[in-house]
Each structure stands twice: as structure tokens, then as C-alpha cells.
Amino acid sequence: MNNFDFKNPTKIIFGKDTIKNIKEEIPADAKVLLLYGGGSIKKNGIYEQVKTALANVDVIEFGGIPANPEYATLMDALKVIKDEKITYLLAVGGGSVIDGTKFLSAAAVYDGDTPWDILTKNIRTEKGMPFGTVLTLPATGSEMNSGAVITREETKEKLAMGGPGLFPVFSILDPQVITSIPQRQLANGLTDAFTHVLEQYMTYSVGALLQDRFAESILQTLVEVAPKVLKDPTDYQAASNFMWSCTMALNGLIQKGVPGDWAIHMMGHELTALFGIDHARTLAVITPSHYKYNFEAKKEKLAQYGERVWNITEGSIDDKAYEAIAKTEAFFQELGIDTKLSDYTDNFEGTAEEVEKRFTERGWKLGERQALLPEDAKKIVRMAY
Ligand code: NZQ
Ligand code: ZN
């Protein structure tokens, strides 16, 4: 097992009818900016619950943060924060609203030339403006981690940021929120969380037995609850297991002491930036090709995953590893997620070269051994056409 530090300061308030607890978490003298997305919270009762909980708090609202949170929109919100002397942020939404809020938490205290530098120059935020979240969509784990991904339509870029100052102070996780989520977004959430675990697990063994079994148990739980969540989002047992699995998939725990890959996400972000494909779907497109391309380096772990998660008992290591890739692709397809780039766009020619060019410009070497070069990314993306 590798050495590690582990600190996660986010307070989780989990369960039925917990949105009302917001009022105990926000300082009485705070001036709050409530941030939300395209308006789903106004149709499903979440907005009302939040407003009731904040009845005695000084609150201003900023809605309209789009999926794949857009820099230009967030800069409008930053102006509100400065003009209104906001001291506390409250994100009510999925990964996009929470990530947008993290950007604002960082930008509100940043004194450089332009907040875009936080993304392009990898400026880590040691202390941001404090913020809490009310999670409305289980998927990203953003509610209990310190990372964010921001999109800039003007340049068709999608870049990551983070730092220890960007953990939410608290996050409210009421699994009942999933009852209003469209099937497409439920499938996305299952796929995203599943892939988060894979990114932190499908590398090489360092003898971290517990981390492996944490990861496998999250994968098994997602496989078990997926059909139930899709069939009946009012099934509270399924919803609560789904929500907690998504949070645990990316709150730092399972990645401690083990190598991480994350190349699938890095290639996937380019597909969202170029074509606007939903984040989770880009992962389903890249994952099978990535594992086939890096088969030799990952086959031991692929076979272990095949045995423990998919009950593949027959054959050699290679057989089990191949079968595990096929099972993974079939799982995404059963959720209703297409796994080829050409399923999403007719305009895919040249994408592999564009990804290679961007990774070369950024000097990126990816994967658990930093051995995945831009030319490898080109080949993987081309395999995914
Ligand atoms: O905008 P509204 O109207 O709220 O509608 C949203 C949006 O259209 C809707 N929705 C959310 N909760 C709902 C609901 N509709 C009905 N009922 C509810 N309860 O769902 C749509 C998608 O929302 P979004 O927040 O975009 O989805 P998700 O949570 O999947 O977030 C995706 C973003 O997170 C980033 C992705 O790259 C993408 O930008 N990620 C963030 C990560 C992190 N911070 O750790 C890690 C991930 O790998 C990922 O990169
Ligand atoms: Zn993801």
C-alpha cells in the first residue's frame, strides 16, 4: 500500500426530509447566495423546502447555471457576489451547480488577473468562500470532494480545478430527490459513479486489500440497485443505496494508498467540450477502448474485477479480463447508454487528432504510470469512434 494523508472535512446530513436542517448549518449573520440550475428545483418541491429552511436568513438567488457549468454564466454570478457582499454560498443542484459554486468559492477570494487562470494555471484553492450544498442528483460525488470541472463555450474547453479549500462545509443528501430525475440523468449518474470507482481501481495492484474491496463493493452495489432505481425512483431503499454509493465513489476514501488512472475522464472531457455529450456518456464511450488499448498493463486488475464483481470464474487471466470489459460495456448499454462516439455525432472525423493536439499543447502524460502519451489518447479515441 502507498503512503497517504486523508482528510475530508465535509459534514454529510443524509436521509429523508433532511433539507430543513440547512438552517442549523449556515451562520446566522451570513449573507447567502443560493445557486441553482435550469429550474428543475422549482418543479419538484426542492426550492420550496430550501426557501422554507432559509426563512430567517439573508438570501439572494442566482439561477440558470447550465449543465457543464459555463464560465460566462459564473462570471455573472461572481459579480453578484462582489456587488452584494455575499459571505456564504449554497448550491442546490447536481454536479454542475455544485462545481460552479466551487469555482465561485475560489474566484471570490482570488486576487489574480482573471479567474480563468485558476483553471489554466492549476491554481489550487487553499481557502475559498464557505459553501454548503443540497444535492439533487446522485452522480459526481462533488458534494463530498474538493474538485470541480468548468466549461468555456467560447474556446470549447473543459478544465478541472480544486484544492483543500473547496470541500463543501456541509452537504444535504435526501434520497427522495431522485423521484423527479429523468431516466437519462439517472442512467448518467449510475454510469458516472461506476466509472469513478473504475478510475481509482483499474490500475495495478499495490496490495491494498481493503481499498480494492471498498471499490468492488461500491461497484456491486451500483450493479444491484441500477435496475431498481431505473424502474422505480420512489423505491427509497434503492435510492438511498444509489445516492450513498455515488458519494462514496468519489469522496477520496477509495483512492487513498492506491494509484489512480483518470485518463478516461480526461479524454471524456474533450468529447463534452467538443460535442456537448453528457459527461457520463463520454465515459461509456472511452472506457471499453481504454481498457482494450491498455490491456497488458491492467489485465490483472481487470480479471480480479471480473471475478469479484461479475462472477466470471472460467478461463485464464486474459479470458477473464476480456470478459470483464465486455460485461462493463454491456452494463452501460443496459442502462440505455450508447458506447460509441458515432452514436452521438456524425461529425467525429478528426476528433482523435484534436484530442492529441490539445494534450500535446498541455504537455499531458496520463494514466497511473503517467505513460499514456497524447498519441496513445489519439488511438484510444479513434478506437471509440
Ligand atoms: O439544471 P436543472 O434544471 O436543475 O436540471 C438538471 C440538469 O438538466 C437535472 N436535474 C438535477 N437534479 C434533478 C434534475 N432534474 C430533475 N430532478 C432533479 N432532482 O439534471 C441535469 C444534469 O444535471 P448536472 O448537474 O449537469 O448533472 P451531474 O450531476 O451529472 O453533473 C455533471 C457535471 O459534473 C462534472 C461533469 O464534468 C459535469 O460538468 N463532474 C464533476 C465531478 C466532481 N466535481 O467531482 C466529477 C465528475 O467526474 C464530473 O466530471
Ligand atoms: Zn465523472
Verbal overview:
- The chain has 385 residues and is α/β, with parallel strands linked by helices.
- It has two domains: 11-176, Rossmann fold (3-Layer(aba) Sandwich), CATH 3.40.50; 182-383, Up-down Bundle (Dehydroquinate synthase-like, alpha domain).
- It has helices at 22-25, 40-43, 46-53, 71-83, 95-107, 116-120, 183-201, 209-231, 236-249, 263-275, 279-293, 295-310, 317-334, 351-362, 374-383, and strands spanning 11-14, 31-36, 58-62, 88-93, 131-135, 147-152, 157-162, 170-173.
- Strands 1-8-5-4-2-3 form a six-stranded parallel beta sheet, with helices on both faces.
- β6 (147-152) and β7 form a beta hairpin.
- The radius of gyration is 20 Å and the shape is globular.
- The two termini are 37 Å apart.
- Zinc ion binds next to α7.
Produce a short descriptive summary.
49% of the residues lie in helices and 11% in strands.
Features:
single chain, 385 residues, alpha/beta, Rossmann fold, Dehydroquinate synthase-like, alpha domain, 2 domains, six-stranded parallel sheet, two-stranded antiparallel ribbon, 8 strands, globular, binds 5,6-dihydroxy-NADP, binds zinc ion
Heterogens = 5,6-dihydroxy-NADP, zinc ion
End-to-end gap: 37 Å
SSE-based structural type: alpha/beta
* SSE series: EHEHHEHEHHEEEEHHHHHHHHH
Supply the number of structural domains. 2
- Count of helical stretches: 15
Based on the coordinates given, report the CATH architecture of the largest domain.
Up-down Bundle
What's the Cα radius of gyration?
20 Å
Strand order of the largest sheet: 1-8-5-4-2-3
Q: Which range does the strand content fall in?
A: 5-15%
Arithmetic mean pLDDT: 97
β-strand number:
8
CATH homology group of the largest domain: Dehydroquinate synthase-like - alpha domain
Work out the oligomeric state of the chains in this entry.
Answer: single chain
